[in-house]
Design a protein that fits this description.
- This protein is globular.
- The strands form five sheets. Strands 1, 2, 3, 4, 8, 11, 13, 14 and 15 form a nine-stranded mixed β-sheet that branches.
- The protein folds into three domains: 5-63 and 206-236, Pseudouridine synthase (2-Layer Sandwich), CATH 3.30.2350; 66-202, Pseudouridine synthase (2-Layer Sandwich), CATH 3.30.2350.10; 242-316, Roll (Archaeosine Trna-guanine Transglycosylase, Chain: A, domain 4), CATH 2.30.130.
- It has helices at 17-28, 58-61, 98-106, 129-134, 180-190, 216-225, 252-259; strands at 5-11, 33-35, 44-51, 66-74, 76-78, 87-90, 96-97, 110-114, 123-124, 127-128, 144-155, 161-162, 167-174, 195-205, 208-209, 244-247, 264-265, 286-291, 296-305, 308-316.
- It contains seven helices and 20 strands.
- With 318 residues, it is α+β, with helices and mostly antiparallel strands.
């Protein structure tokens, strides 16, 4: 079976993102399957799967903002910064008033610098950091700028003073590239008691949320009864975050040129009635181009040449 499109999947805990991709490859009998961002094996939640020609979307979707519900365990640190690791320290006399916890969260909202954890997939001299960590090798890491849009408490114990082992559930809405386990560790350090992630659920990637996801059991059943294709979203669903040009029947010539990778003059196309505002588009911006029926034609980059704006296809889906 060959399928082209986007499939939001509810990844269970205990599986790697690659495990999910491998399972879907087996179910469909096709190789061109990818995803838009790794989710830790212990974590569960939204994993956006790309099928067939939709794998060309990856470069435009890996940077989508993400949302998580994370359970922070106070007073205990681990070598992996989550519940799967070995306990490194315990602060038996930890006493953190709820108001102090709230104030600590405020320090991590907005744009912050974050150092990737040693258990991350970041490369160092050709090797993944987590591979080095397993061998007990420490490697220097450069801090990165990330953005925390929302960081707020969802639930916590009834008592007012938090102590060792208490679990606080927080909602984190953040930019791509944010390490939630490192965020929890940094919060614990700010509180001078240490902390790690007890559980983690990714609840949203861009416009895709848990309500739109299918379980692996759903997908195996759908593959068996022939309804799998009905669960796959069109390629254009992965482009909703970009300014969009919708070509009409009168734009057939532009459609043919763009489908063949040939640039077209943007004048007129950017000013027609489109899904997203395109009047403020500047030079070297990405634009999604779709038909009036919603079929994705390409992602183009705007280019200014001799005073005229052109749409230069970067990725074609035809």
């Amino acid at each position: 079976m060959t399928v082209n499109g986007i499939l939001p999947v509810a990844k269970p805990s205990g599986m790697t993102s690659h495990d999910v991709v491998a399972l879907i490859r087996r179910i469909l009998g096709m190789r061109r399957v990818g995803h838009t961002g790794t989710l830790d094996p212990d974590a569960k939640g939204v994993l956006v799967i790309l099928l067939g020609r939709a794998t060309r979307l990856m470069q435009f979707m890996v940077t989508l903002p993400k949302s998580y519900v994370a359970e922070i365990v106070l007073g205990i640190t681990t070598d992996t910064l989550d519940a799967s690791g070995r306990v490194v320290s315990k602060t038996e006399d930890a006493k953190v008033p709820k108001e102090r916890f709230r104030k600590a969260l405020l320090d991590f909202q907005g744009e912050i610098w974050q150092t990737p954890p040693m258990v991350s997939a970041v490369h160092h001299k050709g090797r993944r950091l987590y591979e080095l960590a397993r061998e007990g090798i420490w490697a220097p890491r450069e801090p990165r700028r990330v953005h925390i849009y929302t960081l707020e408490v969802q639930a916590w114990p009834e008592h007012e003073i938090l102590t060792i082992g208490d679990r606080v559930s927080v909602l984190v809405e953040c930019s791509s590239g944010t390490y939630i386990r490192q965020l929890a560790a940094d919060i614990g350090e700010r509180l001078r008691c240490g902390a790690h992630i007890g559980s983690l659920v990714r609840v949203k990637v861009g416009d895709f949320d848990t309500a739109s996801c299918y379980t692996l059991e759903d997908l195996e059943k759908a593959a068996g009864d022939g309804s799998f294709a009905c669960k796959v979203l069109p390629i254009s669903a992965g482009l909703s975050h970009l300014p969009t040009v919708i070509l009409t029947e009168d734009d057939i010539n532009a459609e043919k040129r763009l489908s063949s990778g040939t640039p077209v003059e943007a004048c007129g196309l950017l000013q027609e009635g489109n899904e997203k505002e395109t009047k403020q588009v500047g030079d070297e911006d990405f634009i999604s181009v779709v038909t009036s029926s919603g079929d994705a034609i390409c992602v183009a980059k705007t280019e200014l040449k001799e005073g005229k704006m052109y749409l230069q296809p970067v990725v074609v889906f035809a």
